[in-house]
């Protein structure tokens, strides 16, 4: 069996940025409450992943 391979069109930081924007837009549609807070927590996690990726990728 051969493994299916996918070539990502967007870079990892671009995909993270898109995901954060998508989650933020979805959260803005919801009223204040538990579900919205969960989505905003995911946004913060994605933003943290973006910062960690920048840190790991830095030359220093």
Whole-angstrom Rg: 15 Å
Low-confidence stretches: none
Residue share in β-strands? under 5%
> Helix segment count?
2
Structural class: mainly alpha
From the N-terminal CA to the C-terminal CA, the straight-line distance is 42 Å
Largest sheet data: none
The dominant shape is extended
Count the beta strands.
0
Order of helices and strands: HH
Estimated helix fraction:
over 70%
Q: For the residues shown, what is the average pLDDT?
A: 92
Short summary:
It is extended and about 45 Å long. The protein has helices at residues 12-29, 34-57. The protein is built from 2 helices and no strands.
What does this structure look like?
Helix content is about 70%, strand content about 0%. It is mainly alpha-helical. The longest helix has 24 residues, at about 35-55. The relative contact order is 0.14.
